[in-house]
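Quick one:
INPUT:
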């Protein structure tokens, strides 16, 4: 069985390594789904930025994304992974699969490893789907046929105290309500304005299962993270996900997927200087709670 995540040990300049070994790196990534480059000389965000450039694929920017996380750009291609508080667990998800716009791959860089906890859990989504088709065939058939909808309640200005705290202004790249409504209509969302400059937005039905170019099928969605984690002052996880037809997805519906994914999850145990590359169509990721200072940066590939 493939090591997961696969560790690529090395030394010296990671940018040069990625540039010189692009095809082999991509083969290894297709095989494992997640690679950990360890022992290379990546001291700071600039070196990480250079490594991402060395890999040579176009970036997917945070500004144009519909991500719900509050982040801060560090270099043009590098930003903080999620500003949510250390005690907040971020549950398994495919990056931005709750929106119609998502990156194909993610780079992570550990600048400072947490004193306790703080690993990045990763989980093969093709393996999850294979098991889930045995355990809950009706659920899989239904999300495949109907798709799924996500409802998110967004504040008027960024709330870094929440994993879902990005404001609607920032999320939609607009200044006012008219602009927000135009953008939502263009994306096929429905919406409702709530008290206190707060916006509740519901996506159109989005696919919950994806077939990769090589035929593998994955549980490509944000259901686990939305169901387990979209809880803050504004968001109730029990109202965050529905089948495409509008019926709620219940705790009972979600239990098998959550249990199987937990069983198949492996941790990336960060050391300072580590860089990971994750195939966003094949592998889910999250963030364990942590203690002490931790700085993990991210960069997305279009
Ligand atoms: Fe993420």
């Amino acid at each position: 069985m493939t090591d997961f995540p696969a560790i690529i040990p090395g030394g010296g300049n990671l940018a040069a390594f990625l540039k010189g070994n692009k095809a082999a790196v991509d083969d290894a990534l297709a095989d494992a789904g997640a690679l950990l480059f360890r022992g290379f000389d990546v001291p700071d965000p600039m070196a990480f930025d250079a490594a991402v450039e060395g890999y040579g694929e176009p970036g997917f920017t945070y500004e144009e994304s519909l991500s719900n996380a509050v982040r801060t750009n560090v270099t043009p291609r590098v930003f903080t992974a999620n500003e949510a508080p250390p005690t907040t667990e971020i549950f398994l998800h495919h990056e931005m699969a709750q929106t119609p716009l998502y990156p194909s791959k993610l780079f992570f860089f550990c600048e400072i490893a947490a004193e306790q906890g703080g690993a990045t859990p990763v989980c093969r989504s093709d393996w999850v789907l294979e098991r889930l088709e045995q355990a809950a065939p009706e659920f899989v058939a239904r999300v495949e046929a109907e798709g799924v909808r996500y409802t998110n309640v967004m504040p008027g200005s960024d709330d870094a105290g929440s994993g879902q705290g990005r404001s609607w202004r920032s999320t939609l790249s607009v200044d006012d309500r008219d602009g927000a409504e135009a953008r939502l209509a263009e994306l096929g969302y429905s919406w409702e304005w709530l008290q206190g400059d707060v916006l509740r937005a519901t996506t159109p039905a989005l696919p919950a299962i994806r077939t990769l170019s090589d035929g593998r099928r994955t549980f490509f969605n944000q259901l686990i993270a939305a169901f387990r984690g979209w809880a803050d002052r504004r968001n109730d996880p029990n109202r965050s996900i529905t089948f495409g037809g509008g019926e709620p997805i219940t705790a009972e519906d979600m239990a098998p997927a959550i249990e199987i994914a937990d069983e198949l999850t492996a941790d990336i145990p960060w050391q300072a200087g580590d860089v990971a590359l994750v195939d966003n169509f094949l592998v889910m990721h999250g963030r364990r709670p942590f203690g002490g200072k931790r700085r993990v940066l991210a960069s997305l590939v279009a």
